[in-house]
Specification:
mainly alpha, 7 helices, 4% strand, 73% helix
Length: 250
């Protein structure tokens, strides 16, 4: 059988690989240490801080994702209503119902609909539009209907109240993730060193015994043929779905 090693590709897997290696401290083959005490000490020094930043990043991501589930619908509605209100306002100007000069107060003097899709832009434009429309109405102007500015304000305020907390959660997650990314190379280098030491000790052993003994230290081998079979199956399913889609379109 054809096997290949593959270093962990998840942070949980990285921590587990270090933990397995530490658990084999002092293990010998024919009076030869499989892993040096220096390597074990390096693993001990690295596993705790890496696991800490990994958990911190995971917790921040979970908090961000949970908050986002209620935030995203509020953002979409606010974006829809602010955008729609601007369109209606500009059409009222084009029909001569509202003087073009008033658009300066809205920041719409160029008669162009601004891009309110970015969240920062939506937050800024929503506030600007609401203040300008309320001021125009207060001075005797005819209100815009469908949607009214009161309705726009309800949806924009719901978004606005969650906007800053959402930005902070994203920043917290990004900062935590940066710490994880910063530490990964050192972790991967150490795991590779551990696996190389293990491989050197068991190089002369029969292949399957080498695989089984190495597994005690967290070394993971994969069946290359099995990987190729799975890849072929994914390609088959992809092609099958493509054909089904073509038939549906026809």
């Amino acid at each position: 059988m054809s096997y290949y090693r593959r270093l962990p590709n998840t942070d949980v897997g990285r921590v587990e690989a270090l933990r397995r290696a530490i658990g084999m401290e002092g293990y010998k083959e024919s009076d030869e240490l499989v892993l040096s005490y220096r390597t074990i000490e390096d693993a001990r020094q690295l596993i705790a801080p890496f696991d800490k930043v990994r958990i911190n990043a995971a917790q921040n991501k979970e908090a961000r994702d949970k908050f986002s589930r209620t935030y995203r619908p509020k953002y979409r509605l606010a974006q829809l209503y602010v955008n729609h209100f601007i369109q209606v306002l500009l059409m009222a100007v084009q029909r001569g119902e509202i003087k073009k000069e008033v658009l300066e107060a809205y920041g719409l003097g160029n008669m162009r609909i601004p891009d309110v899709y970015p969240e920062a832009a939506l937050d800024e434009w929503g506030e600007r539009i609401i203040k300008a429309e309320e001021a125009r109405i207060a001075s005797g102007g005819i209100p815009i209907y469908n949607p009214t500015i009161a309705k726009v304000k309800v949806y924009w305020m719901a978004f606005h109240e969650d906007y800053e907390p959402m930005m902070r959660m994203r920043q917290n997650w990004e900062k935590a993730q940066e710490e994880v990314v910063r530490m990964r190379p050192a972790v991967d280098d150490l795991i590779l060193d551990i696996w190389n030491q293990v491989g050197k000790v068991y190089a002369a052993f029969p292949w399957l015994e080498q695989v089984n003994r190495s597994a005690q230290f967290g070394v993971v081998y994969y069946d290359r043929k099995d990987r190729e079979r799975k890849r072929a199956e994914r390609e088959r399913l992809k092609e099958e779905n493509r054909r089904k889609q073509m038939n549906l379109e026809i």
